[in-house]
Amino acid sequence: MKRVFRKHSERVRAVAPKDRFLEFHPKDGWGPLCEFLGKEVPEGDFPRLNDTKTFQQIFNSGQKSNRIKKIGIAVVVTVSVIIGTGLMWRRTMEKLRSGCMRYFFQLASSELPYESYSLKAL
Fold it and tell me: Cβ–Cβ contacts within 10 Å for residue 33, how many?
């Protein structure tokens, strides 16, 4: 990839008219750019938004927001599971009280011998 970029840059340097071509590096500041454009040099330093410190700040703030999103998702899932479990428990208890499952619990709590539950009789 670097080779392609360098080859392209060399081609542009060779083809572009010298009076219309400026090879600019941000570390050079406002001077060369303003001179080329025929403008006055503005007050203040040249903005450096792509330096290591700024990049790390932007990256770290993104990492923090990703962590916050993941924690939020985990909380939502946990609360949903708790609510769902509670609703299922409530519904089960209502069925027990209404008698739909009373037969099952009577059978399970009966004093029938273990052999009567086995599949040997079938």
Answer: 16
